[in-house]
Amino acid sequence: MAAGDLTHAAGHVASALVRAPTLPEVHETLARLAAASGGGLDLFPLQHHTFVGAVVARAHLLAAAGRPAEGLDLLVAAGAHAPGTDWAGVPWVTSPELAERIGPDQAARVLMQVCAAAPDPVPAADRAALAPYLTLARNAITVHPEHALLLGTASALARRVGEVPLAVRWAGRGVRAAPSKMGEVWLGYALRSAGRTREALAALRRAVDHDPDDLAVYADIAGTLADHGRLTEALAWIERALDRNPSFDCAVHTAHRLRFQRDGDVRHLVALADFVRDHPDDSHEHSDLAECCRGRPWLGQVTPPVVPVAGETPVLVATPSAAAPTAGGDPAVRPSPPSAEATRRLRQLAHPAWPHPPAAYDTAVALATLDLNDLLGLLAYPPETPQTALGRVLSGQDPSLWVRCVQVWTCLGLLHHRTDEPWLSSTRRRVLVELVNGVEEVAEAALFALVTAAWVDPAVRPDVARVVSGRLSTAAEAARQRPLPNAPSLAHLALATPDLDPDSVALARALAGIPARPRRRPLRALTGRLLGLIRPRLPGPPPPP
């Protein structure tokens, strides 16, 4: 600034705001810069890609220029970009005067934006960064104690940051001030978070009375009922929603999840995956499919490999070359070790869990440009366990599980090999089927890849179902002659297969030891630890406006 290089100075101030967004000295320097440049806004223009520090600096300068509502909008945007950072922890945001200056409608709009950018609930570590907005809500409600929209949005924020009693109180005041559909929804959510389920359902039913065409509320009621063991009532509510609109995304997702919860039939999840594929423009992202698949054998995680019985000689993985052609279609020779690039890519994505089969397929596209020899080389020469948190868990609990992961993801990579070839005559199908039938240690990984192909492409389902049915029959016959340790894993693979014939389903249930009325079994302790390392933060439904 002393040299007159204000643009350069502005860059340093923006960087300092990112490092210490509430440090008084930074704000003092920003004020000096503004005084030296006629307000400073021109030094921090908004462009297509603007540094977050510049956005925050502009927000503070807008507030100083008498435009605090615009400044709040930019602070909220910064919070969406970097959650958990205390962008708003400055005096002008928490001052009671701000609530008077911007008015209740503007305050409510800001709180809506904060809720839209925040998960529900907000992780404990990130809640302190939203405290200034909760203070803004308190200040605004003090000035406008009967403003229903302000009370409702303030309740939504309070609930997200764990202030549940306050959320209930504010939502209740909002409904009393001006009964409305959204007021009842906010009250229902707050009551549900408080564990007051009966009152929450009553509030949500009143919301339906206000607007019978808002089918998202039907889905909320159904989900709440199901969470408390009232599945029959939940299904009745979701069927009411589907009667009104059979393609409404929230109702469809909830319906398939509840039907799967009722009978455990994978066809409901396959139908949901088909709906997701055919409706890419849903109103928001849903987590129903991932929730149903999480922790379930092959639907959401690899099953541990079978340890050979003492005295038996295991089939070595280093023999897949006998079962697969080369990329050119000629008879294969023993594959050479994979390239360093193939190993690097595989180690980056291999993991024992995934959200659901279509997500696993999408992730494996990272292996799409590897040639067939590299993919077969990964099967024959699995990379060593990575020196990561995941690798340490696998090494300490079940080292062979890493090899299983390598096999699974390599076979998923095979699904992306020469996808321009028609399925029945394709190299990818031929290689996977021959691995299923010829290389015992890799067979289940290859079979899972075929099952995944059936999830993502309805046209291949009859073919895959025949392959799985044949493999299952062979295993069942062998199980009659001797113990077959991998029978349960194979059975779960069959039960994950789209359009499997009823006789094969019954056989798979018997081999898996599943009772007539399937029930969710507790996850293994190892599975819990693994999922804890990587469970994706799937977005939930959007916040109420």
TrEMBL record:
Comp. bias (Low complexity): 321-333
TM stretches of this protein: none
Domain of life the protein comes from: Bacteria
SMART domains in UniProt: TPR
Listed SUPFAM superfamilies: TPR-like
Name this polypeptide is given: Tetratricopeptide repeat protein
Region feature (Disordered): 321-343
A UniProt-annotated Pfam family: TPR_19
